[in-house]
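S., here's the first fold you wanted:
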Amino acid sequence: MLTQSCNQWIETLSSSAPVPGGGGASALVGAMGVALGSMVGNLTLGKKKYQAVEEDIRRLLEQSARLTQELKELVEKDARAFEPLSKAYGLPKTTPAEIAYRDQVMAQALREASLVPLAIMEKAVEGIKLQQEMACKGSRIAISDVGVGVQLLRSALLGASMNVFINTKLMKHQSLAQEYNQKADELIAQGTALADQVYRTVEEAIR
């Protein structure tokens, strides 16, 4: 899916095609957010002024490269997870046997369709933590891009949560739905608080 051009991807996203959707878009936005932090790191490397933190920057770049790849893979995983759910919605539900089968398929599909956005949320929080360190150690001339990156990751976090909640609301397995909702709520609380803190740090540095 990511082999498409930016224009093709956006056109597909805006169409009636089932994928990509909000989850895939959130993962892609998260990957872009991490990439912005990487840009700041690469602009910092080799600068005499930042020699003391060069090893830290190299570590951050390695972690960011891995995380960017994982978020890109989650774009594809989100599309694959949604397809069974999309098909499950169309299953017949006239007879008791059909209803029982549809419920069984829906339960599994909803579970898979919730786990991927939860993973996107986890990666977004991980990315926000990397941006926190980059905000302190990265080149001051590019620090604004850390602020942009952390806002993209915040959006990825909250965007992915929408896909969790819309799926858990349909679950008949209430204890599982509550477990996923609680995890999402914890990630939102942790991630948004940290992202806001990083954004304020950047804003104070550039104003």
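And the second, which I think is the more interesting of the pair:
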Amino acid sequence: MDTPDAKSMVANCAAYGVDGKKIRDITLDEISDFLAPAQGFVWVGLVEPDEPLLEKLQVEFGLHELAVEDAHSAHQRPKIESYGDSLFVVAQTAQMTDGNIAFGETHIFVGRHYLLSVRHGASQSYARARRACEQTPEHLALGPSFALYSILDLIVDNYLPIVQDFKQELQELEQDVFADLANRDVTRRLYGMQRELLTLKLAATPLQDMLGQLVRLHPEVIRDEVRPYFRDVQDHVTRVSDAINSMREMLGAAMNVNLSLITVRQNEVVKRLAGWAALLAAPTLLASWYGMNFHDMPELASHYAYPGIITATVVICITLYVVLKRAKWL
């Protein structure tokens, strides 16, 4: 089964002893040999595996068919499900890509002597978590439950820089909102941020309940010594969720202020147009009267009628200009 295609989908496959020290990297065909003595555990990481590879690992680890069926697809909601003496955990991952959040999924199978992670979509490698565990074998001696903690902790830690980036961008957008700029792009970005934060919230919030279960339940898989670590990750998720809620409220307020300022600026433009229209109405009205060429208009007989009308028009226009200028309509 260790074909070139299979190897490209296997990020790692290693066996660890009861003391937490890494024995060696193993092939997929050797998994059952290491599981037979029921000592230590096997840690396997897959990246977007195909069905034959998952079916092989289903046989090797004795995975439940429903959990394997879910792992085939990357469109699962975050959840934790118990299948006898094993757990199936689904967590959403996130990372920044070209200024936007890219989401992925990680499916984790955890048993007494194995941990299998399946990555789909945007997700950082879990090699960093694996190396950190290998550097502290006394922790890894706690078994697959500590490896599960390391992966979930890394997933949650990847949320934090995204939240910080959004805070910084929100501050910059707030400055643009109050600047004399065209606000269509600002409105579009505010809406995009609100949509991405909602998706991030839907990814982070279920983790609070999942980690709460790992803190209290599933003694067949989770060792009591590891529960404080899950409680720490739960606290991090709560902080992330609270920060997301705060930013969503600030984004909503920023969008309302932005739309209000756009309306105010439009009203200012309408006021100025109306002011200039009123200013031009006076000479237009006088010119229209004398453009009708009636013979019995008494003003036409006067020698100073034409200069008088011009003077009156100028005086009226200046008066209207001063009045409208003071009223800030011009």
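Why I say that: The domain at 4-262 is CATH 3.30.460.20 (Beta Polymerase; domain 2). The mean pLDDT is 85.

Talk tomorrow,
H.
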